[in-house]
Amino acid sequence: MKRILLSSVAVFAFAAAAHADELTDIQAQSKQLREQNQLLMKRLSDLEKRQQKLEKQPAQAQAVRTVNPTDAMAADLPYKAAVKAPPPVNDDICWKGVCVYGAFDMGVGYQQHGSGYSPYSANPNSYFIQKQNAGSYFGVTGNGMSVSFLGIRGKQEIADGLYGIFNLQAAFNPASGMGDSGLASITQNNGLGGNLSAQNAFGDSSRNGQMFATAAYFGIDSPTYGAFTMGRQSSLLRDGTINYDPVGGAQAFSLLGTSGTNAGGGSTENAILDNTYKYAVGIGPVRLAAMIGARNGGNGSAPGNSYFGDIGFDYMGFSVDFTGGKIFDSVGTITTPLTSAQMNTAYAAGFSTGSNGFISGTVSDNTVFQVGAKYTIGPWKFYGGYEYIRLENPNSPLAPGAIEQGAILVLTNNTNFNVAKIAQTGWVGAKYAITRDLDIAGGYWHLQQNNFSSGANVALCAANTNQSAQCNGAQDVASVVVDWRFAKHVDWYTGVMYGRVSGGFSNGYAAAATNNSNTATNVNGPSHASSWAPTTGLRYQF
C-alpha cells in the first residue's frame, strides 16, 4: 500500500511539472503573438494613413497612360531595367507579348530669329538660335515635345522569371514623312556654306537615315538579375538627360533636347550608338549599369570604341544617378555646310558622296561625367543636373574619307584641341501637376566652355571672345511649357523658350553695328545671337 501511494505521488508531481512547462510555453507564445499582432496593427495603420494621404493628392501622370516616347520600353533605362514591365493597358496594341507603339508630334510656332523648316532633321526647326537665323519664322513645327516615331517591342517569358525582349523604333519627320537624318539636313545645305541667308534649319544628330534610328536591340531581362541587351541603343548619358531634364528633353523647350551634345558626351552623334552591349540591374534601391560600344565600322570610321558606367539610387522620393564615360574618335561640331569650293575639292580628290553626302568635323577623344537628381513631393517634382566634358586631340587621328554614319568626312580636324576643351553644363527646373491631366514645367540650362585657343586664335580671343569658336563662351536657355492631356492618348502643349549664345559660341553669327556710345570698349558683336521661340502643338501617343 505504501509503495502504491509513493508511486501515485510521483506520477502526480511529474504531471504537475509537465503542466507547468506547457503553461509557460503557451504563455510565451501568447505574448509573442500579441506583440506580432500589435506590430501588424501599427503597420496596417501606417499604410492606411499613407493611402489616405496619396488619395488626397492630385493624381500624377500615371493616371492617364503617358509613355516617354523617346525611350518607351522599360528596359531602355538603367533605372527601370530590373522592374518587371506592367501588364498591357486594355487599349494597348499587343498580341502575344508583342506591342506596336509610337507618337506623332506636330504644331505651329514662331522663332524671332529662325530659318526654313527642314524636311530631314529630327529637330526640323531652329528652336535654338543658329548662325543662319537672321530673319523671323512663323509656320509648321515638328517634334516639339518628343520625337515622332513608330515602334515594335516585345517581352516574352522564356523560362521561369526570365524574359526575352526586343525593341525596334523608327523615327521620322511628321510634316514630310521623311526618316530622321541630321546629316542629310546638313548636306542638303552643302554649297551654301558661305550664304547663311539661303540655308534652312539643320542639325547634327545620331539619327541619320537608319531604318530603326532610335532603337534596334534585343536581349534578356530578369526582375532579379537585371537586363542584358545588344544592338543599337541609347547611351547611358542620354538615358540620364531624359530622366533628369524638367521637360523630358523636349526639343522646343530644353537645351538638352535641342542639342545632343550632352546626351552624346561632347557630340550628338554618340547619343545613340551602334554595336553596343548594355547591362543594368537593380539591387534594392540601388541600380547599376554598364555599356560598351564597339567602333562603328573599320579603322577609318567614327565613332571609335566607347565605355560608360552608371550608379544610382532612389530613396523617399529622391532619385540620383552618377554616370561617366570615355569615347574615342568622336566627331563633333558638324555645324557648317560645305562651300562650293570645298565641294569641288572633294570631288577632285575622288571622294564619293556616300548615302549622306560630304561633311566636315573635328575629331576628339572625350571624357565625360554627369550627375542628375530629382525629388518628388506631392504634386511637385524638382530637377537638377551637372555635366563635365573634356575634349582632347584623338590618339588615332581620322584621315579625310573616314565614314561617319553613312556620310564622308572630306575635311577632318584632328588638332582642334591642342588645349583641352572643357564644357560644363548645369540645369535646374521643376514640374507641377495642377490637376491630374494638366502639368506646368520650366527650367534653366547653362553651358559654359573655356578658352581653349592656340596659335593665332590666342590673340583673337584676347581681342574679342566671339572672333574664334575656341574662345570662352556660353549658351543659355530658359523655358516654360504647359501640357494638357485633354483626351486619352492625346495632349496639347504650349510654351516658350528663350535661348542665346555668347563668346566663342557666337562665332560666325551676323555682326552688329559698333556701339558708338562706348567705342573704346565695345567692338562688333553678333546681332542675331538670341531668339524667342513660342511653340504650340498636339501629340498623339499610343
Summarize the entry for a quick read.
The protein is built from six helices and 21 strands. The chain has 542 residues and is an alpha+beta fold. It has one domain: Porin (Beta Barrel).
Indicate the mean pLDDT.
84
Which superfamily, in CATH terms, is the homologous superfamily? Porin
For the record, what CATH class applies?
A: Mainly Beta
Order of SSEs, N→C? HEEEEEHEEHHEEEEEHEEEEEEHEEE
The helix content is 10-25%
Strand order of the largest sheet: 2-4-5-6-7-8-9-11-12-13-14-17-18-19-20-21
- Examine the coordinates and then state which fold CATH places here, giving the name of the CATH topology: Porin
Query: Based on DSSP secondary structure assignment, what is the total number of beta strands?
Result: 21
Largest sheet at a glance?
16 strands, antiparallel, barrel
Structural class: alpha+beta
Query: What radius of gyration results from the CA coordinates?
Result: 30 Å
- In what range is the share of β-strand residues? 35-45%
Low-confidence stretches: 8-18, 58-86, 512-524
| Cα end-to-end separation | 96 Å
Shape: globular
Count every helix, treating DSSP H or I runs of 4 or more residues as helices.
6
Number of discrete domains:
1
Return the CATH architecture. Answer: Beta Barrel
Secondary structure layout:
Elements: H1 2-56, E1 93-95, E2 98-114, E3 135-142, E4 149-159, E5 162-171, H2 182-187, E6 215-222, E7 226-234, H3 236-243, H4 255-258, E8 272-283, E9 286-293, E10 301-302, E11 306-315, E12 318-332, H5 340-348, E13 358-377, E14 380-392, E15 402-404, E16 407-413, E17 421-435, E18 438-449, H6 457-463, E19 473-487, E20 490-503, E21 530-541
